[in-house]
Amino acid sequence: MPKTATLRPDHAHRPTDVMASLGGLLRQWLPRQRWFAGKDRPVADLGLLSLTELFPGCLHLLIHAGHGTVPAPGGTPPAGDCYQLLLGVREQPSPRLGRALVGRVEEGPLAGLTVYDALQDPRMAQLLLERLRHPGTAGPLAFESDPARPVPAGLAPRLLDAEQSNSSLVYGDELILKVFRRVQPGVNPDLEVPGALARQGCGRVPAPVAWFRTTHPFEATLGVLQPFLHDATDGWSLALDALAAGDDFTAQAHALGRATADVHLALASAFPAGAPGENGRTAAAMTERLAAAAHAVPALRPYVPRLQAAFAALTTCDVGPSAQRVHGDLHLGQVLRAGRDWFVIDFEGEPSRPLSERRSAHSPVRDIAGMLRSFDYAARQRRPWRPEWARRCREAYCAGYAARAGWDPRKKHGLLRAYETDRAVYEVLYEARHRPDWLPVPMAAIERLAVRGD
Predict the structure, then answer these.
(1) pTM above 0.85, yes or no
(2) 404-409: which pairs have CB atoms within 8 A and are 24 or more residues apart?
């Protein structure tokens, strides 16, 4: 086994020296990572916010990637993004590193050493689980757990190979650890919300088993360990399988609507209700997001006036259900079906939005609109497009939701149109930046919502 390396104590507290070693490599490596948010922007500035030798051969870093002044050590980061890295350091490179390789350091205190993504190293992943099994601290890092849910030892790790904004490790098909790559100050909803729902007795959401956080340069959640539903299938895969087989999906969609309502009811009990009269502020925020998206995606500009009208209608339409905590990014990829039951996962919300916004109260119609858009996305994965399949799923989902929640989303037409429009605008911007080939999918929804308003 290649020998790991330990950071010399005289350099452990000197951010400028460490970044002299790693800065050049990270500027090339970061934009290639799926979870890096700044793919369309050059990495102009890198600043080291926190450095901890988690265990021999593994460095935990919080770095600031921005386009302006690099923050002073210990200061609040300016505009930009904070990323969490776990880097393995070894004396000799190994061909088994593959895509985990960051590179060989040429200068600074780590000169001559090979650096790689430690989450892709099974040994490092096992050591990380051991940290979570035994609560304690390592520098500014705190490892905590639910004493009622002991973490078993010796679970073999594997890194999930999926397109997502974080990194997830599965341990022995029993537990899954989500490591947040893009870190913002505050408690991450993916720890806060499942914990609160567990205390409510809501069985639709896997409860946190252990987690870790940092206290420097700010308080933030870094990762959450939860049960892994190894016999479950995500809703996106189930929908595509049904489409491929020519099967109806309305029964599943109806049950999913009921499950969504169960989660919303539990959230309403677990968290304070939002302030009344939010529709005006919501309409203004939606209009602002539309303007920003149209500036970045010219294809959106001809539809702006009619889309703005959908948002303006929020101020005069039925106010709908009270604002409350919601999922924030609900779609078919965020739900799992095990047996006959649906489970909801990934309460982080849209990672591109500020954490304060993701933790605030919103209309539950926001989640419903996200799922309705997801049915449309699924239907457009096969040609010829089957709009009737999506329409039946949408109807069944809303009917299931109404049966459990006591109110019908379809009767809140103005609200639903505004939130669907806002979601489609978000999708246009995302696809334009990350998956241009998919841009016609949300643009078709934009045209429908702008022209017909349904």
Answers:
(1) yes
(2) 404/257, 404/258, 404/261, 404/262, 404/265, 405/261, 405/264, 405/265, 405/321, 405/364, 407/321, 409/365, 409/368
